[in-house]
Structure formats: structure tokens, C-alpha cells
Amino acid sequence: MFFRNNIKLSLSFRSYHYFREVADTWRSILPANHHLQCKDIEALEATMPEDIAFKYVNIYQNKELIGVMYLQCLKFNSKHYHHGVLDRPLVKHLKSYILGKTADILICGNIFRVNFQGFYFKDKEKRELIFDCLNLYRQEMKHEKNFCGILVKDCSREFKSTQFTCHGFRSFSQDLTMEMDIRPHWTNFADYLNDLSRKYRQRAQKILKSAETLQIKDLSVEELEQEKERINELYMNIVSKQTLALGILNSDYFVQMKRGLGEGFKVFGYYKDGHLLAFSSHIYYFPKSAMEIHYIGLDYDYNNTYNLYFNILFDGIKAAIEHRFRKIEMGRTAREAKANAGAHAVENFNYVWIRGGIFRWALDSMGKWFENGLGEDWKKRQPFKSIPENVAVQTAEAAR
After folding, report:
1. Which of 19, 159, 212, 316 has CA 20 to 30 A from 390's CA?
2. Using one digit for the tens of pLDDT, what is the confidence trace for 306-322?
3. Under CATH, which architecture does the 2-175+348-355 domain have?
């Protein structure tokens, strides 16, 4: 699909439905190993998640290719949020009306990933054009989809307010992810435990002991295929607990990611007597010396007995130490649990445009409810003993 020029900026777009259609063009403009030409995109596309369509857009100025956009078009509906948010006094009388509504939201980026900026410009000085591009794209798409909102997700750098407010965008504050720095002197998990204060170390040892009878398997593609039904069940257990779940995957995602990324993607199954109780997926970014504890799933009937969630976090830390990574990305949810393990909050730079009316009001209300529900207790967690000055310096240097 080719969109006409915008006279003022001489911008035009060519939009595609499949990554294979842009692979060669994007390779010509993107830096080597850039995340917008990685196998993750094709793996996600191949799973065809429900309620999401993908768009791959080339950006031209005066007919010259200057950048690209990776877009996800989400049909937002009642499956994507916890209905309890609508039981609040100010919203309750609109519950039946809102439950039956859907809304098209345009996302520049990847709602299934962290730190996955959805645009690239050959000339970095032109990066602020992303707001012009998305505004024009929305207008050109009106005949096909009348977007109620646009989310510019996980920008690598912060924009000045004058660069995005002119098109009605605003910064989306308080989007925090939890990260953990791996200290240079940790050569094994025992070193990590030794750096915990007495209270947190005893707690960790109790958690680890509770899972000693479980068998942990590094699942192959074939085993993931065999366990697809159970993996989907465990994953949906997590989704059902979330206030907002903008994107919902299916178990084929884990199969496709393993096929595409090989040793860069792991899924570990937690078994008791041959029965899968939980799983955890890792993405390894070897060039960046970092990893991500990606999507997980668990059976809540066994969570307290085996401390499944906390053991998943500890096993992620073990993997990072074994691979000599410098950092673990742990995601947005369960901040207190991750802070207990030693993670800290990192702010993401997101920008949002929302069409006026009831939709804007509803999303604002849901967003505030979600943020308030996370609480503040996680900020008080200090699991480590005081850091010797030489270790603090080494850690800071390693993080650069």
C-alpha cells in the first residue's frame, strides 16, 4: 500500500503485511544486528496472535528512503483488561456499555517485548519525525481503521515536549520495568546469596529448598510442541491475573521463537512426577551481554508449595551468572517480588495519543487504577548488604 505525499514535509509511506516483503529493504538501512531485522519479528508474525495485525512501513522523504516503522494494530476489547476496574463508583454505571465496545489502537513497537523501539531513521536528527509519520499514517488509514489511540513504545531516548505535543501526543509516565545488575564478582549463585542480607538470604534458601523435588527441563522444539496445550493453560493463568494485558499470545509463540532463535531462546519446564507445573522462557542477547526473563506460566495450585514464581526468578539469576551476563530484564509486573530478588526500576520513554471522548476518559481511569494497584512497597526493598566501594565501582563500570 502506498500513501500519497504530505506536501509540507514531502513524506510518503509504503506499507506491507509481511516481514519478508521488507526484509531486503530494511537490511539496507538498519545497522547490523538491529532488533528490527531480527528473527523475533518473524516468529511473532508466524504465530498470528489473536486481535493483532502487523504493519511494516517504509518512510520516504522526497522519494528517498529515510526510515522504517514496525507497527502493531491491536483490536482492544474486554479480553484485554480485568473487568474489576469497571466496578469503581465513577465507572460502574457505564460497565455494560464499555464491555461491549472494541477500539483499534496503533502501537509503534512491540507490546510483547521490552526495549523494542518500533522506528528507525537513517539520520538521527530526523527521529522526531516519528510523530508526524504516525499522525499522517493514522489519517491515511481512516478508511480502513479509525484508530482511537497511538502508543509510541520504548523509545531509546527521551523526546523534548515540543517535539511530540504539537500532534497531541503526551508522555506516558510511570512505565517502569525491573532490571537487575549482575555484579562482576558473582561467579556462581552462592556469590549472589552471600551478598544478600541475612534476612533475605534465609528467605532465599527456604524458597530454593521448597523446589528441590522438582525436575527442571530445557525444552526442545519437539517437547514444546508436545506440551503446547499445557503451556497455553499455564500462560493464561498469568494473563487472567493481570489488570491490563494488551497482547495475548498463544503457545505456538514459544515453538516459533525456539525455532527461530535456537540457543538464544530457552524455555524451562518445572515438573513434578512428569506433570508440568510451570515454565519460564529466557531470551539471551549475547552481543549485549544481557538476558530477559520473558513470558512465564504457572499452576497457582502449586505455587505456594514450591514457590514457583520466586524460583523462576532465582533460576533466571543463576542463568545470567552462568553466562556471565551483566544485566537481566525482568519485565513490568510483580515489582515487589523482583525488588526482593535485587532488581531496581528503570523508566521507559513512551508517548501516547488518545482520541477525545469517552475512550480517552476510560483509558485514563484504567491506567490510574492499574498504577495505584501496583503500590509503593517494592521501593522499600533493600535485599543486599552494603556494597564495598570497589565492588560498586566495578558494577557501575560493567553497566556502561
Report:
1. 316
2. 999 999 999 999 999 99
3. 3-Layer(aba) Sandwich (3.40)
